[in-house]
Amino acid sequence: MTVTVLTLLKRREGMSKADFIAYYESRHRLIGEKVLQGWATRYQRNHLHPLDGSDQPHDFDVVLEIDFPDQQTCDACFAAMADPAIIGEIVADEERLFDRSRMRTYRVEARASSL
């Protein structure tokens, strides 16, 4: 059974949305791909753009979705990422990009309706 982990992320203060997306997709994404390789089956970044076009501060700028084939693989991946060298690289780059105090991570339990 697929396990989905969803993380809500906010860009750091003073960073434009364009610079945030450019950095995430050209730099931080590569770290994610490296540490998730062999564990995750999907690593998707959903950049949020308000429908009203406003450039007001919002709670989050991106919804990150990561799929794992099962809970055991998910747990093993997070345990591997706790290695000081790996987590150090992740955190150092996150500090360039995110307001880390606003990060929220969840395991998703999806329920879909047939329409």
Short description:
This is Ethyl tert-butyl ether degradation EthD. With 115 residues, this protein is an alpha+beta fold.
Would you give an account of this structure?
With 115 residues, the protein is of the alpha+beta class. It has one domain (3-104): Alpha-Beta Plaits, CATH 3.30.70.100. It contains 3 helices and 4 strands; from the N terminus they run βαββααβ. It has helices spanning 17-36, 71-81, 84-97; strands at residues 3-9, 42-47, 62-68, 104-108. It has a 4-stranded antiparallel β-sheet with strand order 2-3-1-4. Helix 1 runs antiparallel to helix 3. It is globular, with a radius of gyration of 15 Å.
How is this fold's topology laid out?
Elements: E1 3-9, H1 17-36, E2 42-47, E3 62-68, H2 71-81, H3 84-97, E4 104-108
Helix pairs in contact: 1-3
The CATH architecture category equals: 2-Layer Sandwich
Quaternary status: single chain
CATH class: Alpha Beta
Strand-and-helix sequence, N→C?
EHEEHHE
Mean pLDDT: 95
Number of strands: 4
Total of domains: 1
Silhouette: globular
Which structural class is indicated by helix and strand composition? alpha+beta
> N- to C-terminal separation?
24 Å
Largest beta sheet: strand ordering = 2-3-1-4
* Major sheet size, sense and barrel closure: 4 strands, antiparallel
Instruction: Enumerate how many helices there are, as a single number.
Output: 3
Protein name: Ethyl tert-butyl ether degradation EthD
GO molecular function: oxidoreductase activity
